[in-house]
Amino acid sequence: MVQNWQVIGWFMVIAPLLPAAPILINWLLGPKKPNAIKTQTYECGIETIGDTWIQFKVQYYIYAIVFVVFDVEALFLFPIAAAYDTLGYFAIGATALFIILLADGLVYAWGKGALEYF
Fold first, then answer.
1. How many CA atoms lie within 13 Å of 39's alpha carbon, on the beta-carbon side?
2. What is the pLDDT of residues 53-87, one digit of tens each?
3. pTM of the prediction?
4. Domains plus CATH for the chain?
């Protein structure tokens, strides 16, 4: 029993070191030669002209968030569809509740006009 916990303890010690090691090595060994061109703001290969603060239509952001939410929730439905014949009544009821909540969110977003792109 203790050996199982030792593996978890070692994992908790080593796991933060794995992503930190390349960052630390890059910081130590990477070249440090800043100049005016390297410290400029870079956006899609085009030099910024004028003020970079522009008005942004929030509608596009809301549209993207609604898409991501429903896309991720669709991923939750795929395993349920794959194991449908082995699920019990409780799982089917939970899935039905999940789909009802999805439909409710869709109706709410549609009623607020969040799905109108233009």
1. 5
2. 777 777 778 888 888 888 888 888 888 888 888 88
3. 0.48
4. 2-112 (1.20.58)
